[in-house]
Design goal:
By secondary structure, this protein is α/β, with parallel strands linked by helices. It has a single domain, classed as Alpha/Beta hydrolase fold, catalytic domain (Rossmann fold), CATH 3.40.50. It contains 12 helices and 10 strands. Strands 1-2-4-3-5-6-9-10 form an 8-stranded mixed sheet, with helices on both faces. A two-stranded antiparallel sheet has the order 7-8.
Length: 345
């Protein structure tokens, strides 16, 4: 198992994004791309759970639509060579990866660096459909992600142009790290796995505490959705570290409620990861902020992926759970860029 650390770099593409935000004209460079596009897409999926991780209150087969965007260099979007799918954590939405703040538009900068991305609102979040949240556990969401990945490979999804992709990476943040693990060992069909600000082996006591508190709030909501944190102040304490004030305000204002079945079945998801992550046989990235309130250093989690040909660990300094939005976000993007390049994504 190979583990690499450090070595962050600042690229010309990052300067191009900053210049664009300032309204400057950027001429061609060795790394910057021109003609970046972001296209709305949709996926017709079924809320079932074939992940092998059972949940209380099985969802049944309900047809729902998951909505998101393909973002990348225009010249490569239709080539269908490779793509990375990004799934956001609890309390967030697609905007975690696709921010209106130019300095924190992750997929915009990845497109400048030549990468193609799919970002989505998870089932029950913002623009995507949502059945009762008491039936949407991590296994359900893993099955939905598996269906989306299959449709990407077939070009079978909604949008003005829907290329089929040959190589697919999957990255999950926070709760979606558990979901992405279940995709990898329950279904396969991916070429690389990224687990950010997440991990069964590195979870701190606050994870179980917040899950339990959320379940108490779930008893008051018949639709099966409740916030992980009790209020804005608790959310900021848990998620926000070294973040610009206006960005912290926006993240707090936009925070989403989460499906109650996710945290209700979290213990089973953690146990499954501890038992089955060793069967994952693709390259894995484990990344965390040094000041994450929920998850500790990545090395213990990385040790679970014994079947992976290469496990890469990264710790982003002076960064909390909202890893894409700290003042050190450029280091986060550099680390992601390195890993994507290493895995032909």
């Amino acid at each position: 198992m190979g583990t690499r650390t450090g070595g962050f770099r600042t690229t010309i593409a990052g300067a191009a994004v900053l210049a664009a935000a300032l309204g400057l004209v950027v001429t061609g460079t060795a790394t910057a791309q021109t003609g970046v596009e972001s296209r709305p897409v949709s996926f017709e999926v079924v809320t079932t759970n074939r992940s092998g991780v059972p949940c209380v209150n099985p969802p049944g087969e309900k047809k729902v639509t998951v909505r998101g965007h393909l973002t990348g260099p225009a010249a490569e979007l239709d080539d269908g060579a490779d793509i990375t799918v990004y799934s956001h954590g609890n309390g967030y939405g697609e905007y975690f990866w696709r921010s209106e703040e130019p300095a924190y538009d992750y997929v915009g900068e990845m497109a400048e660096r030549g990468h193609v991305s799919l970002t989505i609102d998870r089932v029950g979040y913002d623009d995507s459909d949502g059945p009762n949240g008491n039936t949407v556990c991590f296994g359900t969401e893993a099955d939905v992600l598996h269906q989306i990945i299959d449709r990407l490979r077939d070009g079978d999804y909604g949008g003005e142009r829907t290329p089929a992709f040959d190589r697919v990476g999957l990255v999950g943040h926070s709760a979606s790290g558990f979901i992405a693990n279940q995709v990898a060992y329950g279904f396969g069909g991916i070429d690389a796995l990224g687990v950010l600000s997440s991990g069964a082996a590195s979870a701190k006591p606050l994870v179980a505490q917040r899950a339990g508190e959320m379940q108490a709030r779930c008893l008051l909501d018949g639709d099966g959705y409740a916030p992980l944190e009790a209020n804005d102040a608790q959310f900021r304490a848990d998620h926000i570290h070294n973040v610009e004030h206006h960005v912290a305000d926006e993240l707090t204002e936009r925070r989403n409620d989460d499906a109650c079945a996710g945290t209700r079945n979290a213990a089973g998801a953690i146990a499954s990861d501890l038992a089955r992550n060793a069967t994952i046989d693709v390259p894995v990235l484990v990344m965390v902020g040094s000041d994450d309130s929920f998850f500790g250093p990545p090395e213990q989690q990385a040790a679970l992926y014994g079947g992976s040909p290469e496990v890469t660990t990264r710790t982003i300094a002076d960064t909390g759970h909202a890893i894409a939005f700290s003042r050190n976000a450029e280091a986060f993007r550099d680390a992601m860029d390195d890993w994507l390049i290493d895995n032909d994504l």
